[in-house]
Amino acid sequence: MKNLISILLLILSSVSSFAQEYAKVRENEKFGFITKEGNYAIEPTFTKVRKFRNGFVAIRNEEFWGFADSKGEIIVDYQYLKVGDFSEGLVAVFNGEAWGFIDAKGQTIIPFKYPKVKAFHSGFAIVLDGEKWKYIDKKGKDVIMPESEKPYDFIGGLAFIKRNGLIGIIDTNGKVVLEPKYHRIDKFENGIAKVKLDKLWGFIDNKGNEILTPKYHWIGKLSNGVLNCKLKKQFGLDINGEFVVVEDAIKINNFIDGEELALARSKNDKYGYINRKGEWVLKPIYTIARNFAQGLAPVFMKGEAWSYIDTKGAFKIKGKFRDAIPFEEGELAPIKYKTSWGFVNLNGELVLKDQYGLAKPKGFHDGLARVKFEGRMGYINTKGVFLQGKTYEFVDKFQNIQE
Length: 403
What we know:
six-stranded antiparallel beta sheet; mainly beta; single chain
């Protein structure tokens, strides 16, 4: 039992460490990082920093680059003219003559001999050797892969190959997963990628299987079996493989998972909302409109103020605002009365006074909103309290420092 508890604690500790998030801040022209509690993870002492990658961050003084860990301790002293970002335990660095790779202890793992290099992904890096690009492994040994007009980075164990202008896919063992047959393959997301053959679009999975034969002239995002798309000059939906025309539509936004309505634009240059069957549920009568979230959507009609409607088109928060953003998280949404932003609840009541400037992503995320206030920036909670009561010259978005 004790062993089981120890294992569980170790797992929880690992998950917590992996999910650790920092935001870059600037104070007195120096950079540091804060945690989501608003405490300094690293005091603002650096002249320049990048984002964390794999638990390490590139730092710079007036002349050279080095690296620090998640506590701000310098692990590689300032000595390099150019650097990449850590990936899979190694980082590319330039010593003024050539590029090589070092580890987190600053030890040279792959000698400085390349004029150009890229970061390691799935165990391989692309380097320029003379006039030829090639793959190497983490020991610096050449790796032979199937013939390609150019090498592509591996992502998630897969890389593109190109022959005669067509794109295919290989895996890290050099096996051809998909022979080159498409003119374009986009990045895989959740195991699916858009592909283009001539002028037509479809989808494949990460095994190279076609899950939607290229037949549309434009496609959006697949959501629970429904895809917004265009066939010749008609916009509509592909519903489990069948095309349904949305009458008079000239644009259809992606469906958001969990929402039944998608924003669409009509030939009359107005916006309305369609359901997953391709039917106009809310007629296109709005001059400007935004997506539904929490069952409400911000809409604007010429000559009126911004309001929030429900999925039946009824006004739930009527004509009060100069601008309005969806309730993307929780029960507060950003609104603007005059020149500044505040936050209202689902009843339209002003919860946080309109006194802020907004920074992307707009609104609350994980209980915090990044705002501008009196010429400075900071994060507020849903009560309008700044983290640790602090604002900064600049504060960036939070990021997982292990990514």
